Amino acid sequence: MKSDVKPIDAGDDAIRLALKDANIPALMASIVHLTGNTEILNGPVTPITAPLSDSDDGLEEDQREVIREQALQAICDYRDRGCTLPPLPDEETVREMLTFLTGLPVPDGYMPILEEELAMDGVDRRTVEINRSMSGNRKADFKVLIIGAGMSGILAAIRLKHAGIPFVMVDKNETIGGTWWENTYPGCRVDSPNHLYSYIFERNDDWPAYFSTRKTLFGYFEQCVDRYELMPFIRLQTQVDQAVFDEGSNSWTVDLSGPDGPETITVSAVITAVGQLNTPKLPDIPGRDRFSGPAFHSARWEHEHDLKGKRIAVIGTGASATQFVPIIAEDVDSLTVFQRSAPWLLPTPDYHTPVPDGKRWLFTHLPYYAQWYRMWLFRRDAADGALPFLFADKGWNDRRLSVGQGNDMLRTELIAYIQEQLADRPDLFEKSVPDYPPGGKRPLRDNGVWFEALKRDNANLVTDPIVEITETGIVTEDGAEHPVDVIIYGTGFHADQFLWPIKFVGQGGQTLSEEWRDGPRAFKGMTVPGFPNLFMLYGPNTNIVVGSSIIFFSECEMRYVMGCLKLLLEDGHAAMTPKREVHDAYNEFIDAENLETAWGAPGVRSWYKNADGRVTQNWPGTHLGFWEITKAPDPADFEFL
Ligand code: NAP
Asked: Are 481 and 500 part of one and the same domain?
């Protein structure tokens, strides 16, 4: 695991300057490492709970200054003794530090997941070793196909390579990176805290921003592909057309089309890593094809059109639109935003803020500062985060606006934020308060730029439903015609068409689309009865609405998949498929739990639900819950062939 820091040769003044930018809780933990002394944990300065950003740590400036002075002393001593460290704190001390970090007791059961995430000893506990002596040559003959070379596919490739399992990875695109390559719209950036958004075994400590742009993220995944020398295993511009399970040989016959034409390969297992959000969804609005000007989807941005001075329509106010609208608003002649539902905004002061130089220096020079900063985020967002506020209270019967007491409090707080932003525009305020519970859809990060854009003189927020698109513009239900030069669809993706358009044919000639005629379902989001050795990453019911980062979930899933491969290879089975009754019981649990959440509330419409209103995308529990059910497969849940 990567945890290198550079040696310190900076002078006292430069260190003092860098410390001005420090995250105080992470700095305090780092002081324990530098000094081997835990006194600071019992001192008068105690971090506060649930801060929104680094600059909002709840401490008084003189308290921060006390900590910075102690840190300066500890860092200079460390530098002057040749950058050597005392032994690592013992387990008990690490637990004390984990508790201290956010000023909250560690929630029940969370200690093991926090210790794994912290990886103080540099051990990657999410990796799975496959016993070489027992599996012998079987491993060499067990070839795996990975579909998709984005975040999850690259992770799968790294894990398989480490285990010595042969694999090939295909991607339809001309390069790797998945969503970070496909989405090039202005303002596209990660909306999870970036210092949580990297693989646990390939932590990046030097992000340029708290929420970096897509180019930086794409660069990170390119670097991973280089570092783990994956390119020779990747076939680009290669589409999987169909995969058929051969019950004679217990293998998959896969038809590919690539740059050299069609090809058929045979593999022992298939891992899909195609994402949930890659097929753009254009709305079914009458007349859509009649529009004579440029019209494109946010995920297929047509950069050849200069928007400067043009009349622009944006349809949709989801995560994509709220990122690009504030960027394009400045240059265009007019901007008409068509909103069907108002988004909930999560105040995020650091959303566009570069990581200050001092903090970047600390990340790259101060031992264990980066690990503790990441842990601070993880505790804030995964362990102590907003999630409990999105769960319903039993007996809270009217779930139109909120689903429970906590959720209702959150609603009040988030409305206060909107009110504060729009104190001068009551007309906009009325249109901007969502009419569904907070957390019904993914809350969107905001540092004030969304309403700043909508308040501009050249902007107009239209909430009347669209009835028609004409050659020259958009007509709304009130009869108004909005003439525009360009239409941009920020209308999301065909999220519930998992794995589409690939055709999977499993045991008995059953297709996956038949199996999923009532919507996609899988056991723990990864396996489906009748489709042996088909493993899905980011499959049905594995998405999160708020929390740490989706990489955490992919890492949990890939550990489970590797656990399955271990069972196959070490115990001498050819294939495995989950038992029908186990799969069904699991999905009953998922459906019941999802109904008790803000995103499962009856009035909410979102990409989390399919046409029947069932939540097909989201995991209904906590991070801990998913971590626990994916630690290792239970052989009793499967039939082996
Ligand atoms: P989205 O969240 O599905 O938003 C689509 C928007 O289009 C919604 O406002 C929707 O309104 C509107 N819409 C759809 N059909 C419409 C119609 N016929 N008429 C009027 N409005 C219509 O899509 P997205 O913004 O692309 O985001 C999808 C997901 O991608 C996000 O939830 C997030 O998970 C991910 N994402 C992540 C990032 C990031 O990390 N940086 C950035 C972008 C996206 P309704 O709400 O009324 O349906």
From this structure: no
Same structural domain, 571 and 517: yes
Residue 115, in any domain of the structure: yes
Write the pLDDT tens digit of every residue in 306-347.
999 999 999 999 999 999 999 999 999 999 999 999 999 999
On whether both 612 and 506 belong to a single domain, the answer is yes
Cβ of residue 443 lying under 6 Å from some atom of ligand 1? no
Whether the CB of 103 sits within 6 Å of ligand 1? no
- Can the peptide bond before residue 343 be classed as cis, meaning omega within 30 degrees of 0? no
- CA neighbours within 13 Å on the CB side: how many for 480? 13
The ranges of the chain with pLDDT < 50 are 1-3
What share of residues in the chain are helix, strand, coil (percent, to 5)? 35, 15, 45
For residue 51, what pLDDT is reported?
57
Cα–Cα distance for residue pair 221/194, rounded to 1 Å: 13
Closest CA to ligand 1's atom 34: 442
| Residue-level pLDDT at 104 | 81
- Compute the distance between CA of residue 502 and CA of residue 241 in angstroms, rounded to an integer: 5
**Domain containing residue 163:** 144-279+495-640
Mean pLDDT of the chain: 95
Strand, coil or helix: what is 464? coil
Residue 87 confidence (pLDDT): 94
What phi and psi, each to the nearest 5 degrees, are found at residue 55? Answer: -75, -5
> pTM, whole model, 2 decimals?
0.96
Six token digits for residue 504 = 């999977």
How far apart are the CA of 490 and the centre of ligand 1, in A? 6
In a domain? residue 138: no
Query: What's phi and psi for 314, nearest 5 deg?
Result: -120, 125
In the chain, the amino acid numbered 429 is F
Distance (Å, whole) CA 211 – CA 364: 18
Q: Choose which residue among 607, 610, 618, 619 to substitute to test ligand 1 binding: the one with the highest number of ligand atoms within 8 A of its C-beta.
A: 607
Environment class of 71 (CB within 10 Å of its CB; exposed 0-12, middle 13-18, buried 19+): buried
pLDDT at 1: 38
Residue 334: alpha-carbon gap to chain centroid: 33
Please check whether residue 239 lies inside any domain of the structure.
yes
**Cα–Cα distance, 504 to 522 (Å, whole number):** 14
CA 146 to ligand 1 centroid distance, Å: 28
- Tally the residues of the chain: 641
| Residue given tokens 């200079």 in the structure block | 76
Q: Which helix (H) or strand (E) holds 486?
A: strand 486-489
Which strands form 234-235's sheet, in the order they lie side by side?
234-235, 167-170, 144-147, 269-272, 534-536
Q: Is residue 157 part of a domain?
A: yes
Residue 53 pLDDT: 66
On whether the CB atoms of residues 488 and 474 are closer than 8 A, the answer is no
Question: pLDDT digit string (tens) for 243-264?
Answer: 999 999 999 999 999 999 999 9
What pLDDT is attached to residue 133?
A: 63
Torsion 518-579-500-313 (CA) sign: positive
pLDDT for res 2? 44
